[in-house]
Model the fold of this input.
Amino acid sequence: MDGKDHVGHRQRLMDKVLAGTCCEHEFLEMFLCFSIPRRNTNDLAHRLLSTFGSLPNLLAASPEQIMSVEGIGKNTAALLCCMGKFCQDYFHKFKGENALPATYEREAFVRYINERYAPLESEVFDVYLLDGNGRIFRNERFESKQGGSVHADGEALTALLAAAKPSGVVLVHNHPYGSPKPSEADDQATKSCLYICGVQNVLLCNHFIYSPEGVYDYYGSGKLAPLTKNHSISRLTKE
Done:
């Protein structure tokens, strides 16, 4: 594989990582690229998997065990061990109660809202960013330091959308006490977010309001459509 093909191969691997279509040996091959930057790591990835049986087994191995495989040096063994320790210590946190849902699906998302926002005693306003396949890749929170009503600041939201370039957003805020029914201020905030999303060519999928009495769903209630006027409702979602 010449230099040009080598660079192209690694870019194709990265594209597959981002698309979520990598298989086990391709993930490992991509990992190895960082410690062995100027070498084809495909054969080495297969050799490691053949020796240890699986990627989890490899990442659980000691540096000495990993270096027993031909072609693996101290730096590569250290990288793989660090990755294994990271997964062991932090993976459960990504899957814990504060973990973002993988995708935006309305019914599942409402269940997430009930779990995530029930313990909160002050009002927050969250913006969930979705890619073109409806996957949630980021959550940005706006909250009141005085404990009062809070909504997304227009400049901050504009900057967020411009930097992250999502395909869609879902808005969530909470009423810690009382009804989830939207106020006039909530409607106005939704209109403002719709305008900002329209300028940034981002689709507003939904706006939810949580309270101990239930979850209000702008889209499901039909209230979002009149507010959108010329704005399109996202079809990134699974209804």
Summary: The domain at 3-94 is CATH 1.10.150 (DNA polymerase; domain 1).
